[in-house]
């Protein structure tokens, strides 16, 4: 059973880590499906968010083709049909309905490898009672003396400044 949950601040490397996992599985001959949500307007307005589009990250050398953009009910139905050993990846998972957590669990119990990036608070609450591998990625504060606990966006909404509690207070 494999259910991996990736959390961390924006810019901490969650999507990059998911891309690495997908590439490794694909290179070893495995089946990989990358699924994004169709349930959030800001996500679906991005021109690359479509089947065959590329999911990228802040590391411009990394990307992975998107297999499907679907709603939570479609994602649950897809999970129910997957063979053991298939890897199904949900990035920006906070845009799926919390009820999808049950499908992640059921599929992983059947031997489907389910990777989830950026779950919502409600999804995390539901995952608390489910066996999974939590992967929390941390990033250092711009001061270099502590782990960041906050992000600050200025003009560039792509690359946040990472701050520890002390730096954020200043």
Oligomer category: single chain
Q: Strand percentage, roughly?
A: 15-25%
Question: What gyration radius follows from the Cα positions, in whole Å?
Answer: 16 Å
Order of helices and strands: EHEHEEEHEHEHEEEH
Biggest sheet strand line-up: 5-2-6-7-1-8
Q: Major β-sheet, in short?
A: 6 strands, parallel
Unreliable runs, pLDDT <50, ≥5 residues?
none
Give an account of the 3D structure:
This protein starts with a strand and ends with a helix. The chain has 6 helices and 10 strands, in the order βαβαβββαβαβαβββα. By secondary structure, the protein is an alpha/beta fold. Helices cover 29% and strands 25% of the residues. The mean pLDDT is 92. It is globular, with a radius of gyration of 16 Å.
């Amino acid at each position: 059973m494999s259910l991996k949950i990736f959390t961390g601040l924006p810019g901490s490397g969650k999507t990059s880590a998911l891309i690495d996992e997908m590439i490794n599985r694909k290179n070893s001959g495995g089946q990989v499906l990358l699924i994004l949500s169709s349930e959030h307007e800001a996500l679906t307005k991005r021109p690359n968010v479509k089947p065959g589009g590329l999911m990228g990250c802040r590391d411009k050398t990394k990307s992975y083709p998107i297999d499907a953009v679907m709603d939570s009910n479609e994602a649950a139905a897809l999970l129910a049909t997957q063979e053991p050993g298939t890897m199904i990846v949900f990035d920006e998972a906070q845009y799926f309905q919390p009820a999808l957590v049950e499908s992640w669990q059921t599929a992983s119990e059947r031997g489907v490898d389910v990777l989830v990036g950026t779950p919502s608070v409600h999804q995390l609450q539901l995952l608390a009672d489910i066996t999974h591998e939590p992967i929390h990625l941390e990033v250092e504060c711009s001061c270099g003396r502590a782990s960041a606990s906050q992000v600050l966006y200025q003009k560039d909404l792509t690359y946040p400044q990472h701050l520890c509690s002390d730096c954020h207070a200043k």
